[in-house]
Design brief:
This protein is α/β, with parallel strands linked by helices. The chain has one domain (about 5-190): Peptidase S8/S53 domain (Rossmann fold, 3-Layer(aba) Sandwich). It has four helices and nine strands. It has a three-stranded parallel sheet with strand order 5-6-7, covered by helices on one side. A hairpin with a 5-residue loop joins β8 (about 165-175) and β9 (about 185-190). It is globular. It holds the Pfam family Peptidase_S8.
Length: about 190
């Protein structure tokens, strides 16, 4: 476990005062060059959903214009990175939960999904979340990456607030003109 010292993280620590702590966990030592730095955008994405500052006049190339912000822009973030390309280990998840409880966090946004289990005694996230809940911490977890379909939600422990992605009926329609002057109509549905 180490603390971040990356220039990008220093900017978040020192300028924005948004990121107040960052740790990583790699109990098996499988990851060379381990760092809390977000290498695939997932951590940045989930952090902005939770606590992103308001940004005005955002759009998708001029379409779907509006304002964007996280759920609680005034919140500050402590990062506990447990997931790697190889997956994650229950021991690392436990360590991160214990550190978050010890650090006095108010909410844990757990962007980890696992195999669905109706037996809470073998689901490490459900077990650790119960311990955090007993310490007054609200746990919000990804509902999972399967579905949509019956019984496709993997986060089902009743003490966890399960959050799922959705979409809206907003369709973005635009034209693409190719070099030979062929015009194509492009339709996209924006996921939220």
């Amino acid at each position: 476990m180490e603390t971040a010292n990356d220039d990008h993280l220093k900017l978040l620590f020192n300028v924005y005062n948004k990121l107040i702590g960052a740790r990583f966990y790699d109990s098996k030592g499988l990851n060379s060059g381990v760092s809390v730095r977000d290498t695939q955008g997932h951590g940045t994405h989930t952090a902005s959903i939770a606590a992103g500052n308001q940004v005005t006049n955002v759009s998708f190339f001029g379409l779907a214009q509006g304002n964007a912000r996280g759920a609680v822009p005034s919140a500050r973030i402590a990062v506990y990175k447990v997931y790697w390309e190889e997956g994650c280990d229950a021991q690392d998840i436990l360590s991160a939960f214990d550190d978050a409880i010890s650090d006095g966090v108010d909410i844990l946004s757990v962007s980890l999904g696992g195999e669905k289990s109706d037996d809470y005694s073998i689901d490490p996230i459900a077990i650790f979340a119960f311990h955090a809940m007993q310490n007054g911490i609200l746990i919000s977890q990804s509902a999972g990456n399967n579905g949509p379909g019956p019984r496709s939600v993997s986060s089902i422990a009743p003490w966890i607030l399960s959050v799922a992605a959705s979409n809206t009926d907003r369709k973005i329609i635009d034209k693409v003109i190719l070099g030979d002057n062929t015009t194509l109509v492009v339709r996209m549905t924006r996921c939220i």
